[in-house]
Amino acid sequence: MADLIPLGPFPDAAGYGPAVRLDETDALAEYRSRFVPAEPGLIYLDGNSLGRLPIASVAETERVVGVEWGERLIRSWRDRWWELAQTIGDSIAPLIGADPGSVIIGDSTTVNLFKLAWGLLRLRPDRRTIITDNLNFPTDIYALRAAGDAAGGCSLAVCESRDGIIGPEEKIIARIDSDTALVSLSHVAFKSGYLYDMERITAAAHEAGALVLWDLSHSVGVVPAELGRTDAAVGCTYKYLNGGPGSPAFLYVNPELGVTNPLRGWWGHAAPFDFDLEFNPASGIAGFQTGTMPILSLSAIEPAVAMVAEAGIDAIRTKSVDLTSYLVDLFAVVLAPLGFTLGSPTDARRRGSHVSVRHPDAWRVNQAMINDARVLPDFRSPDNIRLGLAPLYTRFADVHTAIHRIAAVVADRELLAKYPADRSAVT
Ligand SMILES: *Cc1c(COP(=O)(O)O)cnc(C)c1O
After folding, report:
1. Ligand 1 centroid to 251 CA: how many Å?
2. Of 25, 77, 279, 348, which is the most buried if we count CB atoms within 10 A?
């Protein structure tokens, strides 16, 4: 691409100065140096999909492979591995307002959502409806329908957002009635970044005798939560928690509910090494395990979560709001005049840590960003370019530069013409 797009920060009317000043006073600035450096000049705006690699995780995974697997071999199960899923669960608990002993790691978000939804539905056998919204991640919709089938035919009511951006909070609350067994939503919507009022929805569900299951995949590590007041939750560890590709998901369940894991496996047995042919569930959160834990994938989560805890979830949320607000301000000046519209809430209190910008040529722009402008965002159909801002490593100057690179790319018709207008593969 050579000189088509200037790769340095560009000073301009909107001002590079404010970004630099915001970076200078950023209380979390030093965390950036604790991640493995990417290639020079690359701006990574996909931390909401795959978080960057903490330097501490490299050392820890090397230790686990070399010493625990290489030297200690099977003795490591007893040394440390057997408890690891619960240890990591306990380290995530304070980030999401849950008590120790109520969170565990294991399986994918989809599998955990299915386990919990089915388990919760069994507590409300006389009710036949699950409520969600059409901003939810498709896998959540699939898993909720499957859980409804497993529970003997609960149907899924999907409340529709009026604009594809703002969650249909009023519709959901109006829809909850005496037939509602379960309300399940993403805390932060994966496309628009809409942030639900967790307390309000939970209260409305509880008032009607329904249960609530939250998906924190796009909020854990950037938005605080008070799960202790809800019933159950799941979430990814590879997004803002930086646990690594495919790192297992977490699962929270309120211990007072008495929910049990419908997927019975030996890891959820009270005495797995008795190899009893009768299933006798382990009490508490340990019972939500099914089979052998992927220890290598678990290992990278520990140091990554420790870094989030050290930085503090409230400080992270403060910077996240500042970053997305800065982006939205810059958007109005630089991108709106070029035919972009905002695909995210304008109110920072109702926004997670990613912002979607929409354009009729978004698919082409996104490809040019990746291949020619050294910015890695991602594309979500039909016309969203998602910009994920991760407070531990995204600088205000990165936001400034990225927005101007988008502007430069969209103005370059010749560059865009290199790319097909239609989507061919997933990024
Ligand atoms: C990322 C994400 C998932 C991914 O689920 P996996 O089972 O880990 O692949 C699910 N739900 C939501 C809301 C997500 O944001």
Report:
1. 13
2. 77
